[in-house]
């Protein structure tokens, strides 16, 4: 990214035309980054809360006062019960320095609870780990040469524009693009074919495809023999999933499965762009394992334009030990502080504490995240943050929904104001981010804020006081062959460096599993008492998974990202919010007609966890039985002060402990309607259930 300056002020951010993965293009949101940086509501001074929690009234204080309050309170808790202190952070910045370096070292040194950062990709990461050994896969560039591309649980026009450029290149060269998505997303409507399966049934579809590949012998036996483990066991499993059964599970035609398998199995340059949309359900980890197995059956890996890309993040030689210093934890490595899964933050904050859970949570430090808006089962999350006896520090650019509950609200710098280094999960480059402008007002980088709290607490651990530049230099293992010839000085000069990797990464095997092969059968899973072969698990909230619940709440709701927002970031940027308009709910015409709901009216979406309102769009973009509320709105910028996470659940995925945002049954009624309409809908029973 390049920043155009005028008198020390950033007036525009531009893509770098020399950077191959992006070719100088920025997505709509990031092209508005300068507007966000200088937004009149930017936080520029430390503040402390004066009104009740949640109301959002603050007064300005000095950094000295802020750090004194933070240090005094945290020190008092740390001597008694360090695990009562909980960090909460995720994707605000994914930079290796401002993400989790000094912050993690600080919490490790205190012996605070650890946070399992599972809100986004943990099921998929586990799926890849048990199949390929790491988050590794195809290069996004080579999708341009593919002949068939399955865009599976991904909406790249909204969420991965630079991949979409490659897919379009392929399309122009005659490739066939197939979207697999319950919703006709912006991307699905631009593909040659859209397979609108029921949400959470991807594992079954992948096993059905395998069934056809095996029965019709569309296999590369030499590749299977040389580079895979467990083919016989996997075959037996796949034979349980004939197309007719899979069609029934997925709610699609059996012929669609047969045709797709034949096309996939007879094309060598067949590539799959999987993305995290499909793993936000109970069986997400197994689904990723099943899909990741496909190119190893057909030998698609032999071509650089064949294979799978879910994440390429594991290719970068990041030294997370050096960055985060887990060895600073008391008891490391034998007995380390408790781990709290971030998806269950609602339950954790409301837990009274006991011998199993450990101490009641007394302090939360939130940075790079907006949990009151983004975490599932939001009613409980907000209730937790509202606890009067909870001490909450929030490091932020803006007064978000979460910030309203802070005791201390500390102004953080943006990407334009601080130093960082990055890896990517969508391409195979590492990047340097140098500050382009001075920090706004009294804003400080996350690292500096944590160094400050540590200093005021009198912690004498040199690792806590390293400079950002020293941390950035420690972020990569520079001797790694993928960084051949790249060092800190050269990275500073070029801004980015391509990792040296084979074009077709698994053409000759080289998986990072214990066997070095693609593990259809995972001994590591078996040893943990888990299912060693990929299987289909019905969503928790579905007619198969919970018939009684499905009778009361027959509609499956998903809430994937809106194009103009980045999770809950940018929602407060007026130009972007006005393009999104207001919270909407897309609903199939038959589901609407049954409920006497008309296009454009306000509806109430509800289940046992909560309810929210949205303006309905009656459209066949949503398959029957599915409703779609593009997200993630700031609650306080929505007319009713609620967002989609009012109804999502804290249940975790099969592998990795990920969130299950898209495993969520609801009912919908016209906001004007009397309550009996929900009873009527319930009588409809299982017909529309998913
Ligand atoms: N504009 C924009 N871009 C973003 C983000 C953003 O918020 N806004 N967020 C970023 C982040 S943090 C992430 S993790 C990625 C997320 O981006 P993606 O990985 O693309 O994931 P999602 O947007 O969650 O879902 C993608 C598609 O999966 C579909 N889907 C939902 N459930 C299922 C299912 O069960 N099966 C299948 N096959 N499809 C399903 C949804 O309808 C959606 O169209 O995007 C990143 N990029
Ligand atoms: N219903 C539903 N919920 C979802 C999802 C969904 O699809 N549907 N998607 C999930 C996914 S994939 C993800 S990744 C999570 C994302 O959830 P979060 O990780 O909470 O991401 P954001 O909502 O973008 O909030 C990040 C916050 O960090 C702040 N920030 C940015 N940079 C910095 C910095 O340098 N320092 C500090 N201190 N703050 C900074 C921003 O101002 C912003 O308020 O949401 C999840 N929640
Ligand atoms: Mo994410």
Shape: globular
Which molecules are bound besides the chains?
Answer: ligand MGD, molybdenum atom
What low-confidence regions span 5 or more consecutive residues with pLDDT below 50? 683-690
- Percent strand: 15-25%
User: Mean of residue pLDDT?
Assistant: 96
Largest sheet descriptor: 6 strands, mixed
Roughly what percent helix?
A: 25-40%
Instruction: For the largest sheet, list the strands in their spatial order.
Output: 4-3-16-15-14-5
Structural class: alpha/beta
Give the second-level CATH assignment, the architecture of the largest domain. Answer: 3-Layer(aba) Sandwich
Radius of gyration: 25 Å
Q: Determine the number of helices (DSSP H or I, runs of at least 4 residues).
A: 25
Which CATH top level class of the largest domain fits? Alpha Beta
- Total domain units: 3
Q: Give me the CATH fold name of the largest domain.
A: Rossmann fold
User: What distance separates the N and C termini?
Assistant: 43 Å
List keywords for this structure.
6-stranded mixed β-sheet; Barwin-like endoglucanases; alpha/beta; 6-stranded mixed β-barrel; 3 domains; about 30% helix; binds ligand MGD; Dimethylsulfoxide Reductase, domain 2; globular; about 700 residues; binds molybdenum atom; Rossmann fold
């Amino acid at each position: 990214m390049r920043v155009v300056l005028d008198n020390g002020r950033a007036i525009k951010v531009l893509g770098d035309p020399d950077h191959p993965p992006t070719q100088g293009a920025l997505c709509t949101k990031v092209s508005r980054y300068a507007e966000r940086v200088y937004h009149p509501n930017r936080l520029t001074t430390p503040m402390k809360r004066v009104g009740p929690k949640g109301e959002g009234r603050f007064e300005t204080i000095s950094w000295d006062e802020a750090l004194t309050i933070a240090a005094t309170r945290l020190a008092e808790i740390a001597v008694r019960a360090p695990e009562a202190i909980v960090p909460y952070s995720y994707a605000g910045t994914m930079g290796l320095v401002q993400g989790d370096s000094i912050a993690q070292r600080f919490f490790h040194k205190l012996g605070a609870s650890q946070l399992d950062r599972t809100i986004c990709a943990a099921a998929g990461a586990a799926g890849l780990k048990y199949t390929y050994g790491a988050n590794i896969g195809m290069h996004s560039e080579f999708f341009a040469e593919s002949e068939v591309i399955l865009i599976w649980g991904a909406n790249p026009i909204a969420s991965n524009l630079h991949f979409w450029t490659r897919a379009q290149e392929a399309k122009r060269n005659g490739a066939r693009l197939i979207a697999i998505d319950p919703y006709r997303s912006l991307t699905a409507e631009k593909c040659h074919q859209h397979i609108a399966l029921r949400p959470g049934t991807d594992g079954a579809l992948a096993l059905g495809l395998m069934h056809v590949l095996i029965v019709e012998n569309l296999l590369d036996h030499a590749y299977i023999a040389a580079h895979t483990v467990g083919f016989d066991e996997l075959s037996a499993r796949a034979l349980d999933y004939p197309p007719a059964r899979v069609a029934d599970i997925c709610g699609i035609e059996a012929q669609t499965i047969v045709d797709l398998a034949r096309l996939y199995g007879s094309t060598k340059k067949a590539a799959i762009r999987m993305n995290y949309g499909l793993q936000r359900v109970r069986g997400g980890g197994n689904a990723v394992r099943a899909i990741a197995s496909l190119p190893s059956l057909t030998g698609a890996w032999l071509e650089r334009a064949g294979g799978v890309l879910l994440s390429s993040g594991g290719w970068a030689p990041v030294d997370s030990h050096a960055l985060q210093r887990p060895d600073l934890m008391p008891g490391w490595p034998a007995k380390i502080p408790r781990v709290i899964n971030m998806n269950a933050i609602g339950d954790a904050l409301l837990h009274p504490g006991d011998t199993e859970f450990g101490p009641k949570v007394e302090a939360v430090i939130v940075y790079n995240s907006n949990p009151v808006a983004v975490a599932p089962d939001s009613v409980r999350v907000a209730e937790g943050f509202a606890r009067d006896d909870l001490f909450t520090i929030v490091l932020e650019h803006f007064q978000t929904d979460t910030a309203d509950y802070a005791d201390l609200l500390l102004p953080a710098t943006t990407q334009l104001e601080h130093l960082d280094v990055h890896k990517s999960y969508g391409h195979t480059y590492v990047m340097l981010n140098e500050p382009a402008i001075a920090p706004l007002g009294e804003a400080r980088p996350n690292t500096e804020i944590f160094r400050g709290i540590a200093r005021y607490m009198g912690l004498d651990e040199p690792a806590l006081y390293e400079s950002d530049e020293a941390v950035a230099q420690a972020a990569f293992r520079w001797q790694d062959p993928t960084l051949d010839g790249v060092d800190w000085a050269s990275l500073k000069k070029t801004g980015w460096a391509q990792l040296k990797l084979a074009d077709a990464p698994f053409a000759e095997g080289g998986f990072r599993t214990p066997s070095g092969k693609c593990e259809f059968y995972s001994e590591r899973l078996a040893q943990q008492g888990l299912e060693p072969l990929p299987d289909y698990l019905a969503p928790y909230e579905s007619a198969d998974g919970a018939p009684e619940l499905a009778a009361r709440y027959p509609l499956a709701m998903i809430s994937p990202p809106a194009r103009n927002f980045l999770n809950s970031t940018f929602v407060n940027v007026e130009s972007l919010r006005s393009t999104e308009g207001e919270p909407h709910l897309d609903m199939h015409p038959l589901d609407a007609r049954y409920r006497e709901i008309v296009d454009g009216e306000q509806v109430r979406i509800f289940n046992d966890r909560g309810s929210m309102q949205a303006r309905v769009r009656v459209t066949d973009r949503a398959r029957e039985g599915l409703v779609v509320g593009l997200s993630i709105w700031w609650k306080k910028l929505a007319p009713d002060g609620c967002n989609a996470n009012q109804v999502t659940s804290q249940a975790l995925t099969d592998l990795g402990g990920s969130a299950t945002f898209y495993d969520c049954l609801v009912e919908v009624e016209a906001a004007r309607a009397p309550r009996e309409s929900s009873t009527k809908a319930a009588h409809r029973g299982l017909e529309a259930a998913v």
